[in-house]
Amino acid sequence: MVSEPGGLPGGVAVSHLRVYDWPAADGLHGGTPHLHLTCSEGYVVTAGRGAVQTLTASGYEVTPLAPGTVAWFTPGTIHRLVNEDDLRITVLMQNSGLPEAGDAVLTLPPEYLTDPETYAAATVIPAGAPRAEQARIARARRDLALEGYRALREAADGPAALAAFHRSAAALVEPRLAEWRERWLRGARAAAQATGEQLDRLSDGDVSHLAEAAVRAEQPSSQGKFGMCGWLDVYALP
Question: What's the CA dihedral at 11, 12, 13, 18 to 10 degrees?
């Protein structure tokens, strides 16, 4: 029997996001542009106003965000959150929260994408550092990513420049793919397999899995964490 995974339905994970209000060189306020390579991500806007800028092989778009908006995008979408008025979002993440557990590459200039060590030196926020230092690093990496993002948007050979960034991003995460696969196996794939088995059982008139019903509730395991797009309240779900 395939066990029902202990996390949220379908191997989805959730966090609460208060988008950075830090101003950038272009006069906008907000977060760090980046992409995910294997995960879709969704935004449920709960308060404030703003937008998400996206860049894909299809071009550049701006999607307004207001309370009640649900917006989502697929792997490969470079996205930048813009905070116009205290923008707050509940973030839904595929594959048991993998977007916040490694499946993200910031749009740094190419010289920072040459190898994992160089990239980490420009992006990692030390967990034990004073909060003011963590804020400084988070803001500096945001500004650095905006430089690379602007270059991608303005590149004369836009599709080729974007493809080159995709290749660099894939090379950076390659050492972690086995770890990501294990997370997928334990989460989204296990959830899908459990549903298949439950459908088979119901077809046979077997309702035994309903006797195993359970209820869970969690509070954030960490609050105010410096994320890519803003301050995060995160949950330690399986």
Answer: 170
On whether the CB atoms of residues 11 and 190 are closer than 8 A, the answer is: yes
User: 43, 35, 104, 92: which is closest to 70 by C-alpha?
Assistant: 43
Of 49, 96, 104, nearest in space to 79 by CA: 104
Contacts of 178 (CB under 8 A, 6+ apart): none
Give the residue ranges of DSSP H helices in the chain.
116-123, 131-154, 158-173, 177-184, 190-203
pLDDT-derived band of residue 171, with 50, 70 and 90 as boundaries? Answer: very high
- Can you read off the two tokens belonging to residue 91? 């973030």
Distance CA 207, CA 198 (A): 8
Three-state DSSP class for residue 138 = helix
Please check whether residue 74 is in contact with residue 25, taking contact to mean a CB–CB distance below 8 angstroms.
no
pLDDT tens-digit series, residues 127-168: 999 999 999 999 999 999 999 999 999 998 999 999 999 999
| Residue 184: pLDDT over 60 | yes
Q: What is the pTM of this model?
A: 0.94
Tokens of 183: 């997370």
pLDDT digits (tens, 9 = 90+) for 93-136: 999 999 999 999 999 999 999 999 999 999 999 999 999 999 99
State the Cα–Cα distance between residues 57 and 75, nearest whole angstrom: 12
CB-CB contact of 232 with 3 (8 Å): no
The angle formed by the CA atoms of residues 154, 156 and 162, to the nearest 5 degrees, is 70
Chain CA centroid to CA 52, Å: 13
